[in-house]
Amino acid sequence: MHTEFLRTLNYYGAYNAIMLKDGMLKLLFVVNPISGGNENVNWKEGIQTFYKDSQHNLKIILLNGIDDEISLKETITSFEPDKVIAVGGDGTIKLVAEQLIHSKIVLGILPAGSANGLATELGIPAKPEEALRIIEQGVIRN
């Protein structure tokens, strides 16, 4: 899989505030399937494979360019995730971050764009497994 994965950002809470019973997290992955020209990368399958033996509760949504802001906001409200992970480029990250303003939900980034400027600045690991371990272990930058 051609990716660099994610590091979490949290502007309000601490890691303990987002842990569920027995360490289980509710993770919402927001995938832009065409970000960076990566139409052939199966992000959903890769994420599900990594978490297949996990206790975490996953939800993966694919953006389609039609009312993404509204559908994302509704999904966040109904699913109530601990972390929302943007899978895409800087534009996808912006879209997701705007939905999390004034919330205590952690923003994760899985860079899948063409330039990944923000991800590069954050020093996000190139190997997906390393980045996913960061999500699970709760490395948070304020």
Summarize the structure.
With 142 residues, the protein is an alpha/beta fold.
Poorly predicted runs of 5 or more residues: 1-21
Element string (H = helix, E = strand): EHEHEHEHEHHE
Strand content: 15-25%
Give me the Rg, rounded: 14 Å
Provide the helix percentage. 25-40%
Main pleated sheet: 6 strands, mixed
Would you count the extended β strands for me? Answer: 6
Individual helix count: 6
Given helix and strand content, the structural type is alpha/beta
Distance between the ends: 29 Å
Q: Rough shape?
A: globular
Strand order of the largest sheet: 3-2-4-5-1-6
- Average the pLDDT over all residues and give the rounded result: 78
3D structure, described in words:
With 142 residues, the chain is an alpha/beta fold. Helix content is 36%, strand content 20%. The protein is globular. The termini are far apart. 36% of the residues are buried. The N terminus is likely disordered.
Helices and strands in order, then pairings?
Blueprint: E1 8-9, H1 15-18, E2 26-31, H2 43-50, E3 57-62, H3 68-79, E4 83-88, H4 90-100, E5 106-111, H5 117-122, H6 128-137, E6 140-141
Parallel strand pairs: 1-6, 2-3, 2-4, 4-5
Antiparallel strand pairs: 1-5
List keywords for this structure.
alpha/beta; 20% strand; six-stranded mixed beta sheet; 142 residues; 6 helices; disordered N terminus; single chain
